[in-house]
Amino acid sequence: MxxxxxxxxxxxxxxxxxLGVLLRSHAAFGLxxxxxxxxxxxxxxxxxxxxxxALAGLIIQAFLPTEADANKHxxxxxxxxxxxxxxxxxxxVSGYSIPSILxxxxxxxxxxWFATGVYRSIKASRLSQPFSLADKLIxxxxxxxxxxxxxPLLVPVLGNLPSGTALQKxxxxxxxxxxxxxxxxxxxxxLILKHFEHKxxxxxxxxxxxxxxxxxxxxxxTVVSSFTFSDRTVLITILESTGSILQLAALLAGAGMIYSxxxxxxxxxxxxxxxxxxxxxxxxxxxxxxxxxxxFIPALAQHAYTNRFLVIAFLHLVLIGVISITIWAxxxxxxxxxxxxGIFLTFLSSFTVTExxxxxxxxxxxxxxxxxxxxxxxxxxxxxxxxxxxxxxxIQKIRTHSIxxxxxxxxxxxxxxxxxxx
Length: 422
Hints:
Elements: H1 2-29, H2 35-63, H3 67-71, H4 74-94, H5 98-126, H6 133-148, H7 150-158, H8 164-198, H9 205-221, H10 234-260, H11 262-266, H12 271-296, H13 298-306, H14 308-333, H15 341-361, H16 366-369, H17 372-406, H18 409-421
Helix pairs in contact: 1-2, 1-17, 2-4, 2-5, 2-8, 2-14, 4-5, 5-6, 6-8, 6-9, 7-8, 8-9, 8-14, 9-10, 10-12, 12-13, 12-14, 14-15, 15-17
């Protein structure tokens, strides 16, 4: 079952990267595509196809290790695959329309069904034992997933109110905030900590609870940063700054926990896994510093929130630099894929170049340092290299899974019986 979840997730990541190259090529080559439709398909496949499917498979593997528990979620896998496929096709064909909204709503309902089912299974399996830090974090992740779902449900209601359009945007931003900073972030951290727990590494209860409080508090408070306000009051600035500071404090608290047990932790990870987790931690720190700078400097905030290129660069920093690279490390840890140093370093260097080019386009120096045409071509080239890295991993996954099936003892027994009967 774990190969089904992880293989499907990688396929969605491959589609996301393919559409990314297509979007980059649109301006350079004048491709006849409906840009907004492809963009919607790209973003929804990234969130709900790649990240959600990968996290679901990893959570089942780490938190519900028995076959009986894993089998409970087979039907949910099929519904999630149906919702993602329908959503992807409908967004490509007709953009935001009744079919795409229906499939998106279906996915949202299934995701809550899946997450609450996982929580019940975890709670039942622990019996009278207290929750570990990883259990508490995955519970927080599920909580954020559930409350995030309120955002899309409020969109049609808010549209009927005065200033409805602005409120609708805030509802979408609310959803994105608790998806990315809540559900995604808490899930990957919980999965990392669960790996350590499986290896017999336990953290101080006091330090763990402090980290949990700092992280969840920062997520709840920084939701104000995702809203669009006509007038940014002093209170909003204080909340944004406080949330950003708490986020960095959570990072330092987490780093202190890891450092205190570094010799034991080092033995549980390969060099490439350490490199990937170190890279995603660096990206998480960069994200926190950016949010802190934006919250303290109003002029910078105004420029950052309204500049399309800076918004894209920031989203990619979080979704690729923090979330996706951590998921790669976790898939490698659980033997769902095998990532070589060459593949990762090629992907990382290409990603770094694309981030720099996109961020540069959002500054006043974009045309001074490099022409728009050159920038577009470089973005296409390095995006294609990233696509090639993902395609290589997907092909390796398919080949490995095929070998495992062919070497299955039941299948081999069947082949043997067939030969002897002849």
